[in-house]
């Protein structure tokens, strides 16, 4: 469980790195959009070749489909609730919706990040060590997510120290989620583990389509499609090592 927490922290530490860059430096909005696209491609690869493939191999199609749909619906419902409180542009580097509460932005970051961190803990359950590709995917995608969101929060007038403190809280929550993903399912049936992997995959896919890629395309245009494929290819090659 401690190993899962450690690797969850490693993946989540990218949030602090990205937030620090977004707060301390003025990265061009177009560059942030392209980086978001790259991070999305990395996560697409992790979902396809780590979470979904493993879930299907372990228990077949039914737990996979049930888990995917459940994860998507839960994320959709949570995201819709947060949207009405101003968090629907939480990855916008030019600033979130005017009047958006910091609490809504933090809850949005938790909603986005917890499935990714839980996937890290789940990757340890097969007894062969952590899924390096999953950790790398979470790390590489967390940097642009936090960069864009922190830059937007800074543009909206939030104090720098408060922004970094909020992302430290999100990092801690991700560390706990990775530990729980491992600890709660350590002795579970393969079908339960597979359904949980699929649940995380469904939530991540919905997040990519609903928040990450739209913000990337809005700020960097059609080139986002190319860098998304580049991120996908890099993560896939990493998973084959």
Q: Outline of this structure?
A:
With 241 residues, the chain is mostly helical. The chain has helices spanning 2-24, 29-59, 61-83, 102-122, 132-155, 160-183, 190-220, 223-239.
Weakly predicted, low-confidence segments: none
Helix and strand pattern:
HHHHHHHH
Number of helices: 8
* Radius of gyration of CA atoms, rounded to a whole number: 17 Å
Oligomeric form: single chain
Question: What percent of residues are in strands?
Answer: under 5%
- The helix fraction, in percent, is over 70%
Shape: globular
Distance between the termini: 25 Å
Structural class: mainly alpha
Mean pLDDT: 82
Largest sheet: none
Give the number of DSSP strands: 0
């Amino acid at each position: 469980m401690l190993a899962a927490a450690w690797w969850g922290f490693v993946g989540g530490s990218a949030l602090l790195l990205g937030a620090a860059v977004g707060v301390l430096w003025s990265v061009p909005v177009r560059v942030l959009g392209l980086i978001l696209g790259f991070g999305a491609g990395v996560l697409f690869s992790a979902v396809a070749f780590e979470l979904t493939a493993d879930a299907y191999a372990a228990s077949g199609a039914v737990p996979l489909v049930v888990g995917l749909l459940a994860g998507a619906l839960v994320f959709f419902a949570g995201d819709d609730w947060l949207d009405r409180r101003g968090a629907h542009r939480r990855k916008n580097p030019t600033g979130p919706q005017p009047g958006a509460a910091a609490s809504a932005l933090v809850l949005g970051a938790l909603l986005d990040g917890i499935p990714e961190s839980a996937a890290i803990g789940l990757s340890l359950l097969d007894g062969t060590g952590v899924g390096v590709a999953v950790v790398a995917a979470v790390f590489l995608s967390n940097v642009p997510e936090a960069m864009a969101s922190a830059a937007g929060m800074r543009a909206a007038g939030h104090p720098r120290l408060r922004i970094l403190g909020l992302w430290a809280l999100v990092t801690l929550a991700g560390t706990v989620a990775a530990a729980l993903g491992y600890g709660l399912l350590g002795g579970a049936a393969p079908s339960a583990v597979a359904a949980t992997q699929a649940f995380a995959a469904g939530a991540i896919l919905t997040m990519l389509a609903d928040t990450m890629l739209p913000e990337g395309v809005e700020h960097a245009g059609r080139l986002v499609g190319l860098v998304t494929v580049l991120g996908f290819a890099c993560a896939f090659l990493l998973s084959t090592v």
